[in-house]
Structures are given as C-alpha cells and as structure tokens.
Amino acid sequence: MDGSSSAGNTSSASSGLLPTHSDKEVGQHGPESVSLSGSQNDQSLAENQQFPMKSPAGIQRTEEEKLNLNKNTNHRDPLTDKRKPSPRHESKLDPLKPVLLPSEQQLGNTARTEKQNTLTNNLKTEHLSSSIHEANPDKTKLDPLPKQQQKAEDPSKGSLLPKEAHDSNKLKPEQLSPTKPGQPKPDPLCTEQKKPKHEHHPGQSEEHQTQRGLCPTNQKRDEEPPPSMKDLTVLGSIFSKQNQKEQNQLDPALEKFTLSTPERPQDHQDPPHLNTQQTPHHPPKHQLNHQIHPSTMAPPAPPPTIEVFCDQVWPFPPGSSGEPKLCGFLMKQGGPLKAWKQRWFTYEENKNQLFYYRTPQDVTPLGWLELSGATFTYPLRAERGTFHIRTPERTFILKAVTQELMLYWLQQLQVKRWQHRQTSTCPDSTNSSSNTEDFLPVLKSPLGLVGEGAASVSLSQTLFANVSIKHPLIELQNSLHSRKRPSQECQSVFHLEVPHGTPPKSGQTNNTSTLRTPIEPPTPSTPPPSATPAGQVTQTGGRESPSLLDSWSRKTKIRSSFTMPVLRDDSASCERTSRLQQEKQMLMEEVKAQKELVWILHKALEAAQLEKRTCAEFLAEKGEQERLELLRHRERQAVDLRGRLEKAEAEVEALRGSVAQRDAQLSELQEKVTKMIEKNNAKQEVIIKLSDQVSATMSDPRQSGSSSSSGLNSQTFRQFQQEIENLKDDIEAYNTQNKFLNSEIHQLTKLWRNSSEQEKNLMEKCAYLEATHCQVESRYLGVLRKLQETKSLDTAQRDAVQKLIEDALKGELKSVMRVNTTSGHDEYGFKIIPDYEVEDMKLLAKIQALEIRSHNLLHQEGVERPLLSRWAQYLAGRSDDALFASPELKALLRASVPQEYRQRVWRWTVRARTRTIRERHPQRYQQLSEKTRKSPHPASRQIELDLHRTLTTNQHFSSPSCPALQQLRRILLAFSWHSPGIGYCQGLNRLAAIALLILQSEEDAFWCLVAVVETIMPQDYYTKNLLASQVDQRVLKDFLAEKLPRLAAHFENHNIDVSLITFNWFLVVFVESLPSDILLPLWDAFLYEGTKVMFRYALALFKYKEEDFLKIHSSVEIYQYLRFFTKTVTDSRKLTNIAFCDMNPFPGRLIKNRRTFHLERLQAELRELEEQQKEFVTESVQRKDKELDGMVSEDDDDL
Amino acid sequence: MAIRELKVCLLGDTGVGKSSIVCRFVQDHFDHNISPTIGASFLTKTVPCGNELHKFLIWDTAGQERFHSLAPMYYRGSAAAVIVYDITKLDSFQTLKKWVKELKEHGPEDIVVAIAGNKNDLGDIREVPMKEAKEFAESIAAIFIETSARNAVNVEELFQKISKQIPPLENAEVDSNESFKLTRQPAPSVRRCC
Q1: pLDDT tens-digit map of A277-297
Q2: Complex ipTM, two decimals?
Q3: Is B103 among the domain residues?
Q4: Among A102, A181, A923, B182, which is 20 to 30 Å from A212 by CA?
Q5: What is the domain extent for residue B24?
Q6: What predicted TM-score, i.e. pTM, was given to this entire model?
Q7: In which order are the strands placed within the sheet that holds B2-12?
Q8: Is A1064 in Cβ contact with B38 (below 8 Å)?
C-alpha cells in the first residue's frame, strides 16, 4: 500500500497533481485524529510500526536540514532553483523570527537527529525487517521515536492546515477554488484537506460530515495555527524535493521512500502567509546547527557529499589516482570475548591484502586478511552491516556502520580481488571493467566513512578504546610511533579542515567544510554515534508532544463551542411552535366540543319534531276507533320496530365478536410487524456496522483503527499489515543478499575457472618437467648402475658410486610415487615400484618405475585424454546390452580401456562370452556357492594353500583379513565345481584375482574366470597335463622363429628354451609378469580377441627388448634377463604398437593350424613317453630283482 | 677361481617351501606369502666351494601335480635336484618319493639328489619323523637335511652339501661312480627328446 501510493506520487511529480487516494488518506486522517486526541500517541506509534520505512515527515525534515546546509550553495539543479523564491521572503517577514525561534530550535534538533536516522536507516538500499531492528538495541530505540514524531505531525497537518486553508479561503477569496487551472497551486496539504470536503466521500464518518458542516461557521476562531507546525510541514516539503532528487540519484530503490515528495515544489507558490512564516527561520537555524553540531555529528557523513560521489565513475582502472584508497573504519569481531572493536582497514594494492590497524596513524598492522583466496558473504540475521570474509585460514567477522557501507566494502573487495588476480596473473589484460555483469547496482563510496578522509571519523573514540588485547606489542609500537611523529598525528587530526583526501567536486563542499569546522577539536567525551540521536530524539519528542496535545484539546474545545449555540436556537423555536401547537390543539378541541354540542342539540330537535308530528296526527283523527286503529297501527309498528331492534342488537353482538376477533388478529399482526421491524433494524444495524467496517478498511486502515467498534479487527489488520511490511522488508533484504551472493558466486566462479585453467597449465608443465626429471633420473641411475658394474674403478670410486646408489634408492619413494603418494599403489592396488630384494634389482626397479612414470606423464596429454574422449563418445548413450563387436570397439580395446570404463567393458565382454552358459544355468554361481558350502571339493586344499599367496604385492590381497580373499576362495571353489575336469590349477587364482580386482563383483569375476578358461583358452589348457599350454609354447617358438629370427637364432645358439619362462606367461595371461599398466591393457584386448593377443604381446615383449637380448651372450644371463625383463618394459604405448602393428600379419588361422600340428606331435610324444615309461617300469621291476641280488652281494662285500 | 655353473632344480609337493628355500638362499629373505610358482622360476647364486666358485642356477618349479609334466624341462641337465617335503605334511613326503622315482626314471644319470625336510621350525606339528626321512634318504644315497627357510636354518648348509657332492671338474668322470649311488644303475632309457 505504501509503496504503491508513494510510487504514484513519484510518477505524478511532473504533473503536480495528487493521486486521489493519497488525498483521502491524509484527508481522512486529519478529522479522525481530531476525535482521538487522547490516544493519539499510541496510535501514531502503532502506525509508525506499520510504515517503518515511509515516514514522509521524517524525510521532509531531513530535507529541511539539508536545505539548511545547502542554502548558501549554488545548486545547478533546476529543481532546487525553484526554491529561490523563499529567500526573497526573508526580508519581508523578519519580525516574526524571534517568535518562532524556540520552535525552530526544537525543529533543528529533530531534523538533525532524524537526518542521521534516515541516513543510517531509511536511506539504505537495504531494509531489514523489524526483527532485525530489534536485534540491534540501538536501532530499535532509535527508530520508533523519530517516527512517532513524524506521525505526531501528521495529525497537525491534518487538523491545523485545513483551517489555515479555510482561513485563507475566507481572507483571500480568490484562492477559494484551489484546483483552478492556471492559478498558482496551493499547498498540497491544503488541497489534500480540502478535497474530501468538496467531494462527498461515502466512507466518511458522521462526525466528519458534522465537522465539515460546522467548520465554516467557526472559521474565525482558529485563525492562528501553531506556527511551528506550519513551518515544519512547509520546510519539510521544501526539502523533500531535494531529497527526492538525491535519492533518485542514489538508488532507484529509494524512490519508494520518498512518499508524497513530488508535490513539494509547489510549496513556493503557497499562499504567502505560509511562506512568510517559513523563510525567516533559516538563518537562526543555521546558527543553531553550528552550535549543536559538535555533539550530534559524531558520525559526520553530511548527506550532500553523496552528490559528490555521483560524479565519480566506477570502477576505476586499477591503481588509478582517481579511485579513493580503499580504507576506513570497520568493526571487527575478535578476541576471546567476541567483542566488536573498531579497526582501521586499509587495502594494500600490491599484496592484495587487507591490513587492519588500531588507528589510522598506526604503522604496524594488527593483522591482515589475504584477499586472493577469500570469499565474502554477509548474514541476514545479524547486526546491520555485518559481513564475513572467509579466508582459508579463518573467518573474519566485520561490521560496517551501515548496510550501504557494508555493500560498498564488499563490492570494492570483490573488485580488488578480481583486479589483483588480473594484474597478477595476466598483467596485459586490463579488463578490470569486465565486471560489467554486476548483480547489484554499483554503490558509491559513502564519503567520510570510507577512504582516507574517514581516518578522522571517530578518531576521538578510538584513541583510548579498542586497544587490541591480542597484540600488545603492536599496540606499544604504534603508540610509540605516533608519539614520535606528532606532526603526523596533528595532520590527521585536522584532516577534516582541509579535506584533501577526496577533493569534493561540487560547491556544496564549501558548506560541508564550514559545517565541519566546529567539530574539529575532537572531544574524547563524545558519546558513541549511535547513542546520540536516541537521546536527541527523546528530547525533541518530549518537547513536541505537549504542543500537540495543546492543539488537540483546543480543537475539541472549539468543536464543542460550535455545537452549543445551534442547539439553543433549535430548542427556542421548538418551544414556540409547540406552544402554538398546543394552543392550536386546544382550539381544535374546543371546536370539536362545540360541534358535538351542535349535533346533540340537532338530534334533540329532531326527536321533538317527531313527537310533535305524532301528537298532531293523533289529535287529527276524529273517531275513537280511528284513534284506536291508529294506536294499534302504532302498536304494530312498535312491535315491528322492537323485533328489528332485537335483530339489530344480535347483529351488533355478532359484529362486535367479529370486531374483537379482528382486533386480536390485528394485534397479532402488529406484534409481528414490530418484531419484523426490530429484526430489520437489527439487520440494518449489522449491515451498517459491516459496511462501516468495510468502508473503513477499504478506504483507510488507519481509520478503521480509530473506530472503537472494530478495534479488534483493526488490531489484527494492523498486525497483518505490519507483518506484510516486515515480510516485504525481508524479501527485499533477501533479494539484496541474493543479488550479492549471486555476484559473489559469479566472481568466485570466474576466479575458479581462472585458477583451474592455470592449474591445468601448471599441471601440464609439471607433468612435462616431471617426465623429463624422471628421464634424467633414470638415466643417472642407469649410469650409476653401469659404473657399479665396471671393474676398472678403484675402491674409493666404487664406494662413492655405492653411496650414490644408496642415496638414490632412499629417495626413491618420494620422487616416483607422486601418483599415489599415500600408498605407493596404483588405482588397482598394485605396487608402483615392484619389490625386489636384490640391491641390483632395486636400482633397476626404480629406473623402470621412473621411466614408466615419465612415459605416462608424456602420454597423458597426447594419448590418454583423446582416448578417454573416444571411449566416452563410444560408450555415451549405449547401454551394456547395446555393445556389439565391431572393428571400432576392437581398435579401442587395443588402445586400452580407461580406468573409469574398464569395469563396464570387461563385464560386457565377459557376459557376451558366457551368454550361452549363463542362459542355460541362470543361477549357476549361486548354486555352485551353495554346493561349495555343503561339500568340499578335493581341490580346496590346494586352493587354501594358494589363497594367501595370490597377488601378495597387491594391497587388496596383501593381508589375510582382506575381504577379497574370501571372495576369491568362493570363486575358485565354485569354479572347481563348475569345471570338474580342471578343478583347480595353480594360476587360476591369479586370473580370478585380476577379474575380481577389475570387476569388483564376485559373480562377474567367476564368469570372467569361466570365460577365460572355457571360452578363450583352448581346451586342456589347465587340465591334467596342461597339454594345450605346452602346445602353445611350441607355437610361440614357431612364431618367434618367424617374426624374430635373429633373436630366435640367438636363443638357439645359447641353448635357451624360452618356454621355461614363457610358459608361465601364457598360463596366467601375464599376471605378475607384467606391470599393471601393461597387463590390464593386454587383458582388455585379450578378453575381447582371445589368445592371439597373448602371442602378440609375448612376441612384442621380445621385440621390445630384442637388442638387449642380443647383447647378452651368456645363457645364464639370458635366463636371468628373461625372468625379469618383462617388468622393465616401461613404454606401454610402444609395446602395444609393436604387438598390434609390427607383428602383423598375424592370422588367427595360423595359430590354429600350428596348435593342431603341435598338439598332434605332443600327443604322439606323450604316448611314446608313456610307452617308454611302461617299458621302464617293467624293465626296472626286472632289474630290481637283479639289483636286490647285487645289493645283497655288495652288502656282503662290505661286511 | 673358476666359476662352475651348476644347474639345480627344486622339486616337491606344492606349498612345502621350495621357493622359500630358494628365496632364503639367494636373497636371505623370507616371505610368508610368497607367490606360488607357476611353471618355474629361475634364480642364481654363487657360493665359494674349495678353490672353485659354484654358481647355482636354481630352477624352482611349480609344485602342483599337473605341473609335473613340465618338470623334465627343468631337471634335464641338472647337476643336482633338491626334493623338498614339508615335515608337517605326510602327503608331501609321499610326493617326494614319487619325485625320487621320476628322477630315477628320467633324470640325469649323475644328478645329486638332496632331500630337504622343510618347516623344521614347526617341529611340534611334525608328521614326518626325521628318522624315517633320514632312512629313506640313506636308502637312495641322497643328501638329507632338515631346513627352515623361515628361520634360515640349514639352507646354506643344504647347498654347501650339494656343492661338496659335486665332483671337481677335472676328475668328475673319475669320481662320478663312487659319488652317486643313485647313478649306479645305467639308466638306459633316459634320453628323451623334450
């Protein structure tokens, strides 16, 4: 309601016409409040709470103050120019000045205190709810009071001004019609007051109308309105205009608080008597201001300075001289007591730190905040102006004097943080203005509260207070320092006198400085700024209220005197008429009596005439008979008449009965009617009451509050209203906070993005450097190793080399294990540096680990990232069922599966390979598990034996308590039942363990084992004689001879049987022969393509190290090398490349053919062997008999 | 000093501690959960023996029975074979006998056989009496020693004994007959083509 009405006012500012509803508001308010003089204070207080932010009078008076301040300045503003007529009147009406002075003084105080309040509270973009007000004890005390005053004046406007208007109407008839076009417009307040009187408002109370009717007759009685009140309103209206302008400049959001300000310019065309009264007050007020200033201006912050900042362009380029240095006083919560302490905060551009000092003169900061890593926020439900700066180390809780200042600080800090980032990271970019996506309107720095000029603010307070307990040393230093340099101190003390810190731009500053001068000698006894206005307000409030009451009582008196004579006149005339009427009545009755008498006489006359005629007739008859006849005739007539009479009597009786009946009916009906009327009346009353209420609530809730009948309703209504207001405030507060937090999030995101980019770059750089470092180190170790082997060294050198090697091995863990610093295991739990017990091997292992690392680091960017994206692309949107064998998948699998997809891809492959078996036995694994629980398999002994010896270097299997071991046991037992022909073969444990590691599921691992043993490997690979395994070794030898003839010849020359070593590889698919970063890619392809991959990799391994083998010419050394050379393969990419490119063509058919060929040969050999064995057995049996003889004979010999 | 390369293979049931003995001998290290040998493992160690250096080329074989078929690859050409059994497992002693038999049938003629009763440290749960084992060893003229790879008992000695049994290079042929009772038999059909 408030907002809308004020908005309406603002919009109508140009036209100068008042919206009618606001007229009504004021218009109704006046008369109504007249009737309630007793409860006025309470009510106005309540109304204040209802409109906490509105307070038009408060703003008006603030403006008044401002005008006082600015009066002598040249305003370029066209709006303020309108005010110029007012000084003109000064000379005319000076005589009035002394009379008005006391009230002026009063007003001056009020205005000032309220100005401060409005500055701190009302003029903010932020309006926290009243609950927040209550959180701040100072504020709660402060807020209602000025408003009470404001309200107290409202009625005065309402009640007094109308009469002025009427006075003027009477005195100056030409202004009787105020809305006349072309005429200078009268005081809007007058208009407001008059309007309701000209139009008949239906919702108006009876009383109102009465007053309206009566007022004109008594105009003369109150020709003298209290001058102070008039003055106040007019002054207020003048200044509100300026205020509005400033507010508009300040923040559009403020517009809503400039209630009914737009019409104020018209004040200058007011009826002259108003102006004449108004103008002379200024000079004395000015003086008063000067006198009062020192005590009241504790936080000076004169409002005109806001305009100074309007000209400032924001944001400034970093470090530009135009930008005020970001410094100022803030309250900082700290210490063991969590007390607020005022600190001088200074932003240091170069370090991006916010230093805080006890006083601005201090040299040594009490501490600082690192802004580069800081985030800013502010809590809603806290004291106004509180905000938090979170650095990684701690959270600083700071408080600015006002919410506005807080927002200013936060924005500035954001800007600084960003600027610093920009300048520190990429000095070329000058996009500090890239902050254009601002979420909040950029706040102007409130001069005096921030910047170097703020140093003098509340300096006096901080001189001896706020001593930091935590930093006694710094305190001491600072105090010493300040004593050493008194000149500096002086300078800062008089800082305000010559405000060079921020040279003001407009002419207003002259005024400001002159205003400030009286403050200069800082009095240590100055009370805290928040306390001062409160005291002031209570004072003025107290002073104000009596005058108010006066006016009210006077008013009522006037009214009562109005009504009395009217009543007297009325009763006199009434008496006269009643007297006349009585006379008339009497005369009428007399007439009536006369008429009745006449009628009775007439009747008597008639009867006499009839008697006379009958007598005459009787006398006229001659004979007796005739007389008798006549008598009889008469007699008959008499009888007849008697009968008729009887009849008539009966009739009458009947009629009487019916009449009585009718009467009864009638009375009944009448009763009903009265009842109905009563009902109707009651209903009407209700209706009237309700309609009263409705109209009251519709027209103005304030009015409803006044009517005692609907007091309860209005009470609740007011509560709701208040709640709504509170909620609105809350909403606004939340909105602002939300905006701020949005901007904070936006900023932080930008910073984060920036950082992550940097991080990425650095990571790349780091990876590259680390790779080169690893290479260098591995080369160094290689050199050391060679040195160690060379025999030509003397002992000293040998010792030195040995020492170097030892050192190198000691530093081993730190340098190589950066991938997984905590454990030294890779993502699958394999050790990064394999354990070798031999010193020599340790060195080798380290060299190898270093090389693997350097290769990995170098491959990361070029190979692994694209591969990852290829996989992501391939798997995106595909369910596991939608994966099909394809050349693309094959190529991807050969390039290895990224860790994050490995489980999924393996599961898919395994399921695809075991589909038929699983479909035949859906619950196969569960059944087998059940079976293993019931009946132990003969292989369980061997399984138990091997269980704890599986992948012992892997951390998931390293301890006997590992859950993986239990899973492994179940898998192996289930498999031994699933495949009785194989049962358990040493080596299957490793296959199952790898499957379990990757697939992370017992059942999947089981099926993986099944897939490997039953679908990938040829038949009899793990059965009794490991026949197919032996066959594969022969096939491998064939391939070796074919693909690597030189090496094969070399092995042949040195009588090397590679199968002694390679048998192991094939049986367990290279598990524990290859490091995991080669093994797993091998398995990726192996699970998909089958055994061919093993041949490819086996040959690739030989090819990879072919040159090394060819250099070795001792069979023992070749064997030794064969045993571990697989673990020295460092470049898995190179190996993969050899396996899948260099070894081509590699037709699967060829393997098959060779397998069948060798299988047949091996089987033949085995058969031969068996025969030989049988032969031998029989032979030996025969020989044993002989031997026994021989032995016996020998024994005999011995004996 | 001349270095003689001596091929030694370790045979025996699974889990008796073949690899542990080798590990103890070569690296002087013991691991409770040493990986089961698949196929075979190859290690070397050089020890001085008299005026010679004996470089043992140790082939540690897999114990599981189905790997027996691979054993000939390893014991072929061996100068010595160490057959290991677990004194706490009677089964392993039975397996040992099988190995002795196989060596007798298919092994090199002049192979030095050593019988090592491992896990000597677990004497309280012994299943194979030392006397019985010793008698068996004597019956086949093999070296007998009870070892503990875990406590490093008799491991060095085992190989020293083997070293001593190996005839010096120059008179190897001369002494062979009297050194190895096992090879008294001609072993006519040992030549196989594996």
Answers
A1: 444 444 444 444 444 444 444
A2: 0.83
A3: yes
A4: A181
A5: 3-165
A6: 0.49
A7: B40-49, B52-61, B2-12, B80-86, B112-118, B143-146
A8: yes
